[in-house]
Amino acid sequence: MLLIDPVRMLPSLLLPLVGVLFVGGFSARSYGFAAVGVVAAVVYAVVRWATFTYEIVGDRLETKQSLISRSIRTIPLERIRGVDVSTPPMHRLLGLAVLKIDTGASGDEEEAKLAGVTLDEAERLKAVLLRRTSAPATPGAQAYEPAQPAERTIFAVPRKWLLYGPLSGAYLLTPFAFAGGAVGLAFQWGDELGFGRDAAWNAGQWLWDHPYLLLVVAVLLVLAMPFAGGVMYAVFNWNFRLKRRDGYLVAERGLINRRSVSLEFQRVRGYEIVDGLAERWAGVVRAWAIVTGLGDSETRGQLLPDVPRNVAFQVTGDAIGPYRGELRPHPPVARQRRLFRAIAPWAAAALVSAVGVWVLGTMIWWMLLIVTLLLAAGGVPLGLDRYASLGHGYDGRRLSVRSGSLRRAQAVVERRAVVGWRLRQTWFQRRAGVLTLIAGVGAGKGGYSAMDVSMTQAVDLSTEVTPEWLAPFLNQSADEDGTAGGDPLRRS
């Protein structure tokens, strides 16, 4: 850790050190100040390492830090909801690991982090913390040596499926992210890097004056998207394994930084199946767990990377529980709303472009007109696909809702996780006679929506899932109307 901490601090020290050297004109004094800064970083790492301790006392974990002021953090073992073990590159070279403890009380931040323990100690602590083993009463006794928990591999993602990586949209933007970073570096550090900020600006201006070369660069970046995206995807999801170990779901992945995430099975309330357009065409999806009190759920809750759809439903069904019902379609007016929203903005832009063509007649307006007309035409299949993606259902044990097109998500939630219902109706929905029914869930995103359902569908679904909640209102409505055929939800 005395080596890792100073090296890890170098990026934050780089700018001050470079500033000291430039201000001092690279004199002996400036080098001296820079050396003092490096030594200070090492001393800081030594003091922090020497004053940090952790201990399991009874039914709690205590971490102590005495760098400037004494700080003691106490975490009850029963509140621990997840323990992650990761091995960044330098830690792996030195046989160390980073152990993060999550209680769900700090949002996306871990409750405590042990930044440098041995691999054996990390696995031992992980087993202890997840099994909630108490400390022995005898001082100095050999503590916290639980039996090795039983482990079963639910699914191991074949390496050939890493080829699905470029279908995931976030990874495809990797070349543009690197290009943007390089441009920003050139403009901000051009003088310090020796070629001058003006040179970077002149190069950009020259490219702008030669649009064909700019087009070539754009084409090269687009061609690099599948390759770069696939590489980044493989780095993060290499050798992905989903296991079940002693009451926990454990997901392990990563090439450079190997990460192991544990999710307490008792706190899992369902799962979410997600796919984009390209993934849907290829028949692959991703899966996340819906867990109570889980921080950074978009990363920590991942159950599966891109895998074939049937495999995803089989694995999530085996690991958490299957959804056995059919999704019910939404009313036709929902299709009309999606077609309107997919076409109307581009049709309005096409109308403005047509006015520009009629008034000015320049090439730019003709290009805008063609592009907007193509986008408006493309809105037809997009709107139809968004409607086809809508659905909701209940199979007697689990509720499921689905929506989206560019990013389609189907959530499957256990009935016991539903803690309330919320109806939301915009002015346009009110005129169309539909509404959005949101199932409040004490896990995951906090709520999952059945969008643009009819009033009858909203009443039927909420009554089917939680009949004991709505029965008093339905009975009261029937008594007041003198018949069971009134509008129970509106009257109550």
TrEMBL record:
PANTHER family: UPF0699 TRANSMEMBRANE PROTEIN YDBS (PTHR34473), UPF0699 TRANSMEMBRANE PROTEIN YDBT (PTHR34473:SF2). Residues 49-127, 395-458 form the YdbS-like PH domain. The keyword Membrane applies. It comes from the Bacteria. The chain crosses the membrane at residues 7-26, 32-51, 169-190, 210-236, 339-358, 364-384. It holds the Pfam family bPH_2. InterPro entries: UCP026631, YdbS-like_PH. Keywords: Membrane, Transmembrane, Transmembrane helix. This is PH domain-containing protein.
